[in-house]
UniProtKB/TrEMBL annotation:
InterPro entries: IolE/XylAMocC-like (IPR050312), Xyl_isomerase-like_sf (IPR036237), Xyl_isomerase-like_TIM-brl (IPR013022). Residues 38-270 form the Xylose isomerase-like TIM barrel domain. One of its GO terms (molecular function) is isomerase activity. Gene3D superfamilies: Divalent-metal-dependent TIM barrel enzymes. This is Xylose isomerase domain protein TIM barrel. It comes from Sebaldella termitidis (strain ATCC 33386 / NCTC 11300). It comes from the Bacteria.
Length: 308
C-alpha cells in the first residue's frame, strides 16, 4: 500500500517543510507526501528538499495548488483576466516543479471559483473560461496528470466545481487524456453524495487520479480519522477501490488540531488496513454477489460479518 500524510498536520511555529518531512519519514508505512504549491516550497531550498526526500526514501505523490487571498474572487475563472492568467501560470509552475521531483500528479482545488449571491457571476462564461484553462493546463505537459479535487462549498457558498457530476463534466469537456478526479471523502459527504457511487463513476471512466481519506458528520469539512463516523460507507468505498484495483496513493486529508499528528496518522493507517482486511475476509466476489442482488436486507450481512 502507498500511504501519504498531510504536511500541515505537523505544522507549528518555526517548523520548516524539511523538519516535517523528517518527522513524517519516521512513521512506518508512510511512503509518500503531498506538497502544497507554492506554500511548502517557500523558504525551502529546492535541492535540499530533493536530497532529503531521497535520503528518507519518501516519494512525492503530487503537488496540490494553494491559491492565496489575492484569488479570493476567483482563480482560473476570475473575471479579471490578469488574475486568471496568473492563476494558470501558478498551475504551470506547479507542473514543472512536480516533474523535477519525479511526481506525475498535480491536484487543483478551486476554492475561490464560486459565488455567494444570486446574480453574482455569469455561470456559462465562467464555466467556459474554466474549460479553456484546464485544457491549457492539461496540454502543457502530457506526462503530468491534472486532477480536479471538488468541494461543494467553503470558502464560497457555492463552488463552480462542486460535485462528482460537475467534475466529470469538466473533465469530459476539456477533452484531454491526462485530466481526472481526486475524491475527498469528506467533501463528498458535504455534498450529500454516497462516496462509493462517486468513486465508481470516476473509476469506470479511468479518471480516478487521487483519493483523500478522512471522515466527517456531513455539514462541514471535519477532516476526522477515516472510518470514525461513517463506518459502512467507508467500507463500501474501500471495497470499490479494491474492485477497481486502485493502485494510487491513499492520502489522509485529516486535521489533527488537538491530537498528536503522528499517532493520528498511525491510527488512520491502522483503520484503513483493518477495513481493507475486512473486505478481503468477506471476499470481493461474495460482496459483488450481494450487491448485484439489490437486496437491502441481505446487504446487512456485510455489516454483520464485520461485527463478527
Ligand atoms: Mn482533500
Amino acid at each position: 500500500m502507498k500511504f501519504a500524510a498531510r504536511i500541515n498536520s505537523f505544522k507549528s511555529k518555526g517548523k520548516t517543510t524539511l523538519d516535517i518531512i523528517r518527522e513524517i519519514s519516521k512513521i512506518e508505512k508512510v511512503t509518500h507526501v503531498d506538497l502544497n504549491y507554492p506554500e511548502h516550497f517557500e523558504n525551502t531550498d529546492f535541492e535540499e528538499l530533493k536530497n532529503l526526500l531521497e535520503e528518507k526514501k519518501i516519494k512525492v505523490n503530487g503537488l496540490a495548488l494553494r491559491f492565496r487571498d489575492e484569488y479570493k474572487n476567483g482563480e482560473l475563472g476570475n473575471t479579471d483576466k490578469k488574475i486568471a492568467e496568473q492563476a494558470k501560470q501558478l498551475c504551470l509552475e506547479a507542473i514543472d516543479t512536480a516533474e523535477k521531483l519525479g511526481a506525475d500528479l498535480v491536484t487543483i482545488w478551486l476554492g475561490y471559483d464560486g459565488f455567494d449571491y444570486s446574480f453574482q457571476i455569469p455561470y456559462e462564461k465562467t464555466w467556459s473560461q474554466l474549460v479553456k484553462a484546464f485544457k491549457e493546463i492539461a496540454s502543457y505537459n502530457k506526462k503530468i496528470k491534472i486532477s480536479i479535487e471538488y468541494k461543494p462549498f467553503q470558502p464560497r457558498a457555492f463552488s463552480m466545481i462542486s460535485s462528482i457530476g460537475t467534475t466529470l463534466l469538466m473533465v469530459s469537456e476539456t477533452e484531454e487524456e491526462n485530466i481526472g478526479v481526486t475524491l475527498d471523502y469528506c467533501h463528498m459527504l458535504m455534498k450529500g453524495e454516497n462516496p462509493a457511487y462517486g468513486l465508481s463513476l470516476a473509476a469506470e471512466r479511468k479518471k480516478l487520479y487521487g483519493v483523500h481519506m478522512n471522515d466527517g458528520h456531513g455539514l462541514n469539512d471535519d477532516g476526522l480519522i477515516t472510518g470514525s463516523v461513517t463506518f459502512i460507507k467507508t467500507l463500501e468505498f474501500i471495497y470499490y477501490l479494491k474492485k477497481y484495483s486502485y493502485d494510487g496513493v491513499i492520502y489522509f486529508d485529516t486535521f489533527p488540531i488537538r491530537e498528536n499528528g503522528i499517532d493520528e496518522v498511525r491510527k488512520n493507517i491502522e483503520i484503513y488496513e483493518k477495513l481493507e482486511s475486512l473486505v478481503e475476509k468477506i471476499g470481493i466476489e461474495k460482496i459483488g454477489n450481494i450487491v448485484s442482488g439489490n437486496d437491502a436486507v441481505k446487504a446487512q450481512n456485510i455489516l454483520l460479518e464485520c461485527l463478527g
